[in-house]
Request: fold
Amino acid sequence: MITPEEEIVIVDLSESLLQRHSADSNSRKNKLQELSSDAIEEFLAYQKNIPSEWWALLVGWELRQMWSLCGTYIVISIFNLMLSIVTQMFVGRHLGTMALAGASMATLEVQGFAFIVMLADQLLVMFMCSFESWYSLGIVLSSAYFANTTVSVASFAICINYLNLDLTFMLGMSTAAIIRVSTEIECANPRVARFSAMVVNATSILISIILSTIIIACGTTLGKAFIGDDEVIKAVSEFTPLLAISVFLNGVEPILSGVATGIGRPGLVVCFYACNYYLIGLTVGFALGFMTYLGVAGIWWGVILGFSLQTLVLVIVVATTDWDKEVDKAFDRLKQRADEEILA
Reply:
């Protein structure tokens, strides 16, 4: 039951947040700029039944914050990745299957080596950013042990290129999730932090559904972009359903990892990565690949299993998070850090 005093507070907050409602686009843009995390935190705390148009305004504000953090990173990273992808396209179209397989393996090894450099900076950052890159490199190299080695490596590498392109996009959104959630937690805005996590996850899932649909619709076109060999194109088209599933999971797991890291649990995320991807995913993938008729597809099912387990665990972690307690923990960490600086 809302008391008269609380009702007055609700009205005041509503008016301060959503005053001068107008259909004019410039007016809406100004209102988005006027919103602040503290005001939205109070608004979400007191307002119970929020109209849909108010939700739209709040979601628009959050999307503006999110894309301002990750938009530039995504564009630059995709263009950098496109350099290697276009090179592989040129090699495959003009030099053939063998050259494409070799170029793909060399490119993945160079990308994997680049992540080693991160070790000198931050161990946890290196692990979280490079697990899937090293994982991709490992399974591409493993595909060379199957029959028709050249076709296996070339077709698998083509699919991994598409998967890495999607992963680059999602890592940008994951970075935005880390920054938004950690910032709001440290500013004592648990409801805004939770709202930010919901918006970025919903956005990434929507994008992943669209990308997965495009992959299924394209079919054989995915392989034709890299090579003209009918055998490789057929192999890539057979991997299309697995690629679509992986792209969809790619839109959930990295974002949840970002949210979990933002609330102060990076070590837990790294442990989950090691267990789900390497101990379980690789073990099952190699067992299916080398001990059954599935071959290269069996290794990919191991990848999907690793994705699924990691996603499931992170969903449980985020869903059971007490956001108010995370604010208290963040305050304690900041206080401890300040005390250490004073003593130093």
